[in-house]
Design a protein that fits this description.
Mean pLDDT: 86
Strand content: under 5%
CATH superfamily of the largest domain: MFS general substrate transporter like domains
Oligomer: single chain
């Protein structure tokens, strides 16, 4: 018998964290290297690549929501969400390698192969990542434990990014022996094996302590039930706030990371420091994730998140005014920005669990999969908008790719996109959460009131039973 309220062990937290490390071993590689691989190694035109990315994002939008609905209604002897890690870890790892394989075929066949493998990789990523994110509510019912779990998760995500950024290209060069097509395939085969092993450990080292009963069967069609569940989410004001927060936060995040190379190359004039600064960013994310639980241990999570966003935004505004000659001061500020952001990220994701609990208490429906899948969709929307904003703004400013010297307008645009604009977006997150209702104090008061109500009801029930016993006592009994 598993105790739902037991404190999670270090092994369980490590196991959960390994899941996001496994995701990022593959997905960070696609984020960092896929565009270059398709255009410069695989031989795909930029137009075909852009069209493929757009098509897959549209498919993702539908699939993510459907997967959330399906996983909410999954029940097996192995659990509700954990089985998906077992079912899809091997396909995910294999497709990670196949997506980076270059077939010896004509142009049309290569285009079809690229569409098929990248689409399947993206769909498999959703099939394993949606239940992975959602299973946290089944691992623990304690808000602080969930923050701790999220900190382990994002620490391993950062560690996965570090492994990719430091290991991917050396593996390509070593294994390919001058043939980058073979090098990418062999390197991704190794990354795929590492990902599979990490997912299997995540599956073995975690336990779903709390699994809600299946929803009552109804006569509605699949689409009608999805519509009803989505309508329920849309009526929940705190879910709407977190959905908006994820969109805005990811726009800011893409500007912070996507503009880093431009900022280092053209404002600092030190293209040789790109790998150093990217390494600083990834290590800072790892440090921030690890310090999150002790840093916010005695602070209301919503208040802690707002404070972290305020400090981060002010640092980024300050970054705009630092002269390019103070390179290491700039690196220090960039590091602090990412430490603070990473320390607050587990708080943000733990708030989604509170929304799930609140919906379940008020309606009896557990929508863990749907809540996390819709917010993953919000993240993809933010990434798409942020990427488009970078392209449009640079184009308007007169930026010229690969030019050794950029115009003053282009340089100003680079600096604004890297500092002031994301800072303003981050400040807006405080406004988004201004009326957020599920603060720690309100949750504790609600739990206390529910416990007190249960105690009174139980006391009343016992008193009623005593009255019945006394009334029915045989005459003459002692």
């Amino acid at each position: 018998m598993i105790n739902e309220n037991a404190k999670l062990s270090l092994i369980e937290k490590l196991g959960y964290g390994l899941g996001d490390g496994a995701c990022n071993i593959i997905w960070q590689t696609t984020m960092l290297f896929m565009a270059y691989f398709y255009t410069d190694v695989y031989g795909l035109s930029a137009a075909h690549m852009g069209g493929m990315f757009l098509v897959v994002r549209v498919i993702d939008a539908v699939v993510d929501v459907a997967l959330g609905f399906i996983t909410d209604r999954t029940r097996t002897s192995l659990g509700q969400f954990r089985p998906y890690l077992l079912w899809f870890c091997v396909p995910f790892g294999v497709l990670g390698a196949l997506t980076f394989y270059t077939p010896a075929a004509g142009e049309t066949a290569k285009i079809i192969y690229a569409y098929v493998t990248y689409s399947l990789l993206s769909l498999t990523y959703s099939a394993i990542n949606v239940p992975y994110c959602a299973m946290i509510n089944n691992l623990s019912r304690e808000p602080k434990e969930r923050v701790s779990l999220q900190s382990f998760r994002f620490a391993f995500a950062a560690l996965g990014g570090i492994i990719v950024s430091m290991g991917a290209m050396p593996l390509v060069k070593t294994l390919g022996q001058g043939n980058d097509q073979l090098g990418y395939f062999y390197a991704m085969a190794i990354m795929g094996l590492i990902s599979i092993a990490m997912f299997l450990l995540c599956f073995l080292w975690t336990r779903e302590r709390h699994i809600s009963p299946l929803p009552i069967k109804s006569n509605e069609s699949f689409s009608q039930r999805v519509y009803l569940d989505l309508a329920l989410l849309l009526r929940h004001s705190d879910w709407r706030r977190l959905f908006t927060l994820n969109v805005v936060n990811l726009i800011a995040g893409i500007l912070k990371t996507g503009m880093a190379i431009y900022f280092i190359t053209y404002y600092l004039g030190r293209a040789d420091l790109i790998s150093v600064v990217l390494g600083i960013i990834l290590i800072s994310k790892l440090v921030g994730s690890l310090i999150s639980p002790p840093l916010f241990k005695n602070v209301d999570r919503v208040l802690g998140y707002k404070l972290a966003m305020s400090v981060q935004a002010m640092l980024m505004i300050g970054l705009f005014f630092i002269d390019a000659t103070y390179i290491w001061l700039i690196c220090g500020v960039i590091s602090l920005v990412h430490i603070i952001n990473a320390s607050a990220t587990p708080l943000q994701w733990s708030l989604l669990s509170d929304v799930i609990d609140d919906i379940e208490k008020s309606t009896g429906k557990n929508l863990s999969g749907l809540v996390f899948s819709t917010n993953l969709f919000a993240i993809k929307v933010g990434i798409a908008i942020g990427g488009a904003l970078i392209g449009w703004a640079l184009s308007i400013s007169g930026y010229v790719g690969k030019a050794h010297i950029q115009t003053d307008d282009a340089l100003l645009c680079v600096r604004l996109l890297f500092s002031i604009i994301p800072a303003l977006l981050i400040f807006s997150l405080i406004w988004v959460l201004r009326n957020y209702s599920l603060t720690d104090r309100r949750i504790e008061n609600k739990v206390t009131n529910e416990s007190e109500s249960y105690r009174r009801d139980r006391e009343h029930e016992l008193n009623s039973q005593m009255v019945v016993i006394t009334t029915n006592k045989p005459s003459g009994a002692a």
